[in-house]
Write a structure and sequence with these properties.
The chain is built from three helices and nine strands. With about 170 residues, the chain is an alpha/beta fold. The structure holds inosinic acid. The site of inosinic acid (IMP) has 18 residues, from strand 5, helix 3 and strand 8.
Length: about 170
């Protein structure tokens, strides 16, 4: 497999993103990170370790591509959050924004829970595939329209454990 982003590149960018995020919030206010399972778990784990102590976190799960590399366009809530968002500074932590359908759905349902602020951080963005215009406040890397795996991202549940991000063979 062709490696697109090495572990070192990913870690360096995450440290920068952590700094950008922390600079955007008052120093004495908590930031509540909502990780999107399963793809966002590794990004979440590294991002929180790159941030200071004023962070809490929770996870939400939505349906993904199943065994296809093409989006079905259907988004379904599979696991909800453990706690409410009212009055909190919330950031959605997602692996990749592709068509934007998943994030649009998540932003809509989380905004309805009255957070004080709601932002989104994505490690990867494929802007050429966008179907809906979704706002992503923090983007790690902008990539071309290629199917990538590793660092949390899967193909049919495989490859999530790779440290690097690679282009899947045959793409
Ligand atoms: P969207 O709703 O089309 O923006 O898709 C977002 C979701 O699709 C992500 O959370 C991923 O789970 C999945 N996805 C999109 N592109 C890729 C890819 O290149 N590799 C692995 N998963 C992807």
């Amino acid at each position: 497999m062709e490696i697109l982003l090495t572990s070192d590149m990913i870690q360096q960018r995450i440290r920068e993103m952590a700094g950008e995020i922390e600079a955007d919030y008052p120093a004495d206010e908590n930031i509540h990170l909502v990780g999107v399972l399963k793809g966002g778990f590794m990004f979440m784990a590294d991002l929180v370790r790159a941030m200071g102590s004023r962070v809490t976190l929770d996870f939400i799960a939505v349906s993904s591509y199943a065994k296809s590399t093409k989006s079905s366009g259907e988004v379904r809530l599979v696991k909800d959050l453990d706690s409410g968002l009212e009055g909190r500074h919330v950031i959605i932590i997602e692996d990749i924004v592709d068509t934007g359908l998943t994030l649009t759905y998540l932003q809509d349902i989380l905004r309805a829970r009255a957070p004080r602020t709601l932002r989104t951080a994505c490690l990867l963005s494929k802007p050429s595939r966008r179907k809906v215009d979704v706002v992503v406040d923090y983007i790690g890397f902008t990539i071309e329209d290629r199917f990538v795996v590793g660092y949390g991202l899967d193909y049919a549940e495989q490859y999530r454990n790779l440290r690097d991000i690679a282009v899947l063979d045959g793409e």
